[in-house]
């Protein structure tokens, strides 16, 4: 049996208050580590929220201060952290911004993913990424399929990540009210149709213009909901057995029975 202990940290995010958010995240990460967590997932843009009023100040170049802090923490604690931040890249036309998903494994950024499907207002500020690839961990024989929020609505994203060998799907999100029922349905659907564990980490709390319902979830490869948060800040901890995925896929051969020649 191959088990890995996952912690999904559901937290409020104080808009544009980077240091405060990072301090809280580190406090909750330490709590998760005390419970034996090996892989820790934080919500989308956990350090700033969607800080449109100060994009230059909230954004960082890849390898900036936030990722350096988390790299040091993961190296010291021997863990893995997954989330996203606002990234900036300089070009001839000025700064470009991306929603940068990242996976930091024992002090090393083992992979990044720029959100390929910005949602509504995000399109005014963020450039879309142009690549969807899973992330291989270095300290464990595991591959992570990372997607970001709105991409739950695009089954092609999780299907591609699954077919490319992901051992689990991870969704980091700021899914707002009133879409709680949609969130829960989509999270389970992505796990069921790909027969793969799914860790979906949403934020809670509120911004000036919207509020969030939390409801972070961990779903196993059979589609069973094994952990679910309410609206409060919380930490979900669960041991995922990655060998169960192959058992589920042998019992119901949905992936093998696909007809890609027809669709």
Primary descriptors:
263 residues, alpha/beta, Nitrilase/N-carbamoyl-D-aminoacid amidohydrolase, 6-stranded mixed beta sheet, 25% helix, globular, Carbon-nitrogen family hydrolase, C-N_Hydrolase, hydrolase activity
Describe this structure in words.
The chain is an alpha/beta fold. The chain has one domain: 4-Layer Sandwich (Nitrilase/N-carbamoyl-D-aminoacid amidohydrolase), CATH 3.60.110. The chain has six helices and 14 strands. The chain has helices spanning 18-34, 55-58, 65-77, 155-163, 180-194, 243-251; strands spanning 3-10, 39-41, 80-91, 94-105, 108-114, 135-136, 143-148, 168-173, 198-202, 204-207, 210-213, 217-219, 225-228, 234-241. The strands form three sheets. A six-stranded mixed β-sheet has the order 5-4-3-2-1-14. The protein has a six-stranded mixed β-sheet with strand order 6-7-8-9-12-13, covered by helices on one side. It has a two-stranded antiparallel ribbon with strand order 10-11. It is globular and about 50 Å long. The termini are far apart. The mean pLDDT is 96.
Could you give the topology of this structure?
Layout: E1 3-10, H1 18-34, E2 39-41, H2 55-58, H3 65-77, E3 80-91, E4 94-105, E5 108-114, E6 135-136, E7 143-148, H4 155-163, E8 168-173, H5 180-194, E9 198-202, E10 204-207, E11 210-213, E12 217-219, E13 225-228, E14 234-241, H6 243-251
Question: How would you briefly describe this protein structure?
Answer:
The protein has 263 residues and is α/β, with parallel strands linked by helices. It has a single domain, classed as 4-Layer Sandwich (Nitrilase/N-carbamoyl-D-aminoacid amidohydrolase), CATH 3.60.110.
């Amino acid at each position: 049996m191959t088990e890995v202990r996952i912690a999904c940290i559901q937290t409020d995010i104080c808009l544009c208050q980077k240091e405060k958010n990072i301090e809280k995240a580190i406090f909750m990460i330490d709590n998760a580590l005390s419970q034996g967590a090996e892989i820790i997932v934080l919500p989308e843009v956990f350090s700033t929220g969607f800080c449109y009023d100060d994009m230059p100040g909230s954004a960082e170049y890849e390898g900036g201060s936030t990722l350096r802090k988390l790299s040091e923490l993961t190296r010291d604690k021997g863990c893995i952290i997954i989330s996203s931040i606002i990234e900036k890249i300089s070009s001839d036309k000025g700064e470009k911004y991306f929603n940068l998903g990242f996976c930091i494994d024992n002090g090393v950024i083992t992979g990044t993913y720029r959100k390929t499907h910005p949602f509504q207002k995000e399109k005014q500020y963020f450039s879309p990424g142009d690549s969807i690839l899973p992330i291989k961990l270095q300290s464990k024989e595991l591959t992570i399929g990372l997607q970001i929020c709105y991409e739950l609505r695009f089954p092609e994203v999780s299907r591609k990540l699954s077919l490319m060998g992901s051992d689990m799907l991870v969704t980091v999100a700021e899914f707002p009210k009133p879409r709680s029922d949609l969130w829960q349905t989509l999270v389970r659907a992505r796990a069921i149709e790909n027969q793969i564990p799914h860790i979906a980490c949403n934020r809670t709390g509120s911004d000036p213009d919207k509020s969030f319902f939390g409801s972070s979830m961990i779903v196993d490869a059979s589609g069973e909901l094994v952990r679910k948060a309410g609206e409060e800040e919380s930490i979900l901890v669960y041991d995922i057995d990655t060998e169960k995925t192959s058992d589920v896929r042998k019992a119901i051969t949905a992936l093998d029975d696909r007809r890609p020649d027809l669709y």
